[in-house]
């Protein structure tokens, strides 16, 4: 069952004081009365998928897959891996986010990806973002975040460095025309 802000992206505004989220785009994966959980989708980590495979003892994967940048998904549980993907729920631990969008935390999806049997589109992140009960709603009312619908192009195709502006553009916002953002696009 979709939750109120699940399958939406949060777009950080200049009012957001937390440096973990400056100019970030975070996909909300789960949102309910207890809080929210999401994955930052525009911040590279220092790791490649090949390095993650190596640390986990997962063999395989072509050079293109092994060189894929792993994202810094957020400051919560930075040691845990999260795979944001399309292609269903056939893995052990998968959360349905929206239409053909899923989050899997089990090792079996990485093994399938290494064998060429994974989802068509996937990004791997280390860590996630979390908000306590009412915290995200408060931050939105304080003008820390804009919200926009998520889409496959934004999540899987666009280069990381253009996702922040592209996400804002989905709702008609151009940061280059706002005083706080001029010269920082």
UniProtKB/TrEMBL annotation:
Q: Which GO terms describe its cellular component?
A: cytosol
Q: Which family does it belong to?
A: Belongs to the UPF0301 (AlgH) family.
Spell out the NCBIfam families in the cross-references: PRK00228.1-1
Give the residues annotated as coiled coil: none
What the entry lists under HAMAP family is as follows: UPF0301
Q: Report the protein name in the record.
A: UPF0301 protein LA76x_1550
Q: What InterPro entries does this protein map onto?
A: AlgH-like
């Amino acid at each position: 069952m979709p939750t109120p802000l699940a399958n939406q992206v949060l777009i950080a505004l200049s009012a957001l004081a937390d440096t973990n989220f400056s100019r970030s785009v975070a996909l909300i994966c789960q949102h309910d009365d207890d809080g929210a959980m999401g994955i930052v989708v525009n911040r590279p980590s220092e790791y490649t998928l090949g390095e993650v495979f190596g640390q986990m003892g997962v063999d395989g994967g072509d050079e293109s897959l092994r060189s894929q940048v792993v994202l810094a998904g957020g400051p919560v549980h930075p040691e845990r891996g999260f795979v944001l993907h399309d292609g269903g729920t056939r893995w052990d631990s998968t959360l349905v986010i929206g239409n053909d969008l899923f989050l899997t935390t089990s090792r079996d999806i990485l093994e399938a990806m290494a064998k060429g049997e994974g989802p068509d589109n996937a990004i791997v992140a280390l860590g996630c973002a979390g908000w306590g009960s009412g915290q995200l709603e408060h931050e939105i009312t304080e003008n820390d975040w804009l919200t926009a619908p998520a889409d496959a192009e934004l999540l899987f195709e666009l280069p990381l460095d253009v996702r922040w502006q592209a996400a804002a553009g989905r709702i008609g916002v151009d940061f280059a025309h706002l005083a706080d953002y001029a010269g920082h696009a």
